[in-house]
User: Fold these one by one.
Assistant:
Number 1:
Amino acid sequence: MPILDQNSFEFISRGTEYTRRIGIRLGTILRDGDVICLEGDLGSGKTTFVQGMAIGWGSLDQVTSPTFILLNLYRRLDGGQFHHLDAYRLKDAKDAEALDLERYIETGPLAVEWAERIKPALPADHLWVTLRIVDMDQRDLVFTAHGSYYKKLLDNFRMRIYGGL
Ligand SMILES: Nc1ncnc2c1ncn2[C@@H]1O[C@H](COP(=O)(O)OP(=O)(O)O)[C@@H](O)[C@H]1O
Ligand SMILES: [Mg+2]
């Protein structure tokens, strides 16, 4: 199991379905207030991963790429709300601050694509996911926990992928 350090680990995805499936694994353990930040080039699999997370979390709604509409909302039977923000079109963190992300975080998990563009507007504690295109079918995913809560979340997630090592 490739561990970079105590707070991060790496996963090589060998196809779209793998990326979606590990997104599902993470989605099943997400709770209200969890913030998942995604960084990676166009086509690196950010939206695919968020699709998995929303499915695992229990979304009744289909996940689409929010590139043109900024923010998507997915609902669950129990009234939970999963927010999916695409920061591609935001100029900087000031734009994001105007969105008042806190009110979204209160009602459910928040996933942010192109998170690096609005970093100052995001909570200091979060799970950061860096996706890199290796070749046509492979993506390199690196997960890094920021803050003790996310370290526990990452341990839990890692265990769900690799078993209790
Ligand atoms: N291992 C992989 N993981 C995720 N996507 C992959 C993978 N291999 C190929 N792809 C393809 O790359 C594209 C990723 O698109 P998308 O998830 O929308 O990326 P992003 O949101 O980062 O722009 C899709 O067309 C998908 O089928
Ligand atoms: Mg996308």
Note: The mean pLDDT is 91.
Number 2:
Amino acid sequence: MPLVEKAGLAKRRQELLGQVSGRVLEIGAGTGFNLPYYPENVQLVAVEPNLDMLKILRARAAGRNIQIIEGSIGDLSSSGISLHSFDFVVTTLVLCSVPDMDEALQTISTLLAPGGKFIFIEHVVTPGVYERVQNLATPLWKRMAGGCHLNRDLLGSLDHSQMVVTTLFRFNFPLGGPLIPHGIMGTARLKSDFFV
Ligand SMILES: C[S@@+](CC[C@H](N)C(=O)[O-])C[C@H]1O[C@@H](n2cnc3c(N)ncnc32)[C@H](O)[C@@H]1O
């Protein structure tokens, strides 16, 4: 990961997270690679299910006003976290690994306050020749890489969700090779913010 960060991912994180304010929920915060990029005054809640990562996350967050919760996205609506209350919900490189991406998007849409933004950096399926490679490699890759799917269609799932994509930027994924050639960085907002 440090090589990938240096090769360009850190810059993407900085671009994504520089915009946040107010109440922010990061799902699948991992070991805390995003923490340096949050503005000082945000009220950050970071959720992470993996106990080894959680330990590092807690150490990196020490001394900062960050609430850390052990849990997965599937637990969130029943975890006591207030629904419809976050100005920003953040995922970076998480939706490839959740058991059900459509369900995860549904949960995210219930966590956003009216006017709130779901912002993300994710790797996704790349149509064409790469997609065939991604489909072939995913069963083995999943087992080696913590359940990560190389071929998830996040934009397709967002199309069927309660949210609508409002900004989108595609980039060559640093050191991603033929398995992860592209990433996307973007924003989605509740459809109910636009349509009644
Ligand atoms: C590739 S790591 C990315 C970590 C961090 N977001 C980052 O950008 O460095 C994938 C993360 O997704 C988390 N994750 C996997 N399944 C999850 C779930 N169902 N709910 C929440 N987080 C999950 C993992 O524990 C891990 O922290």
Note: The chain has a mean pLDDT of 96.
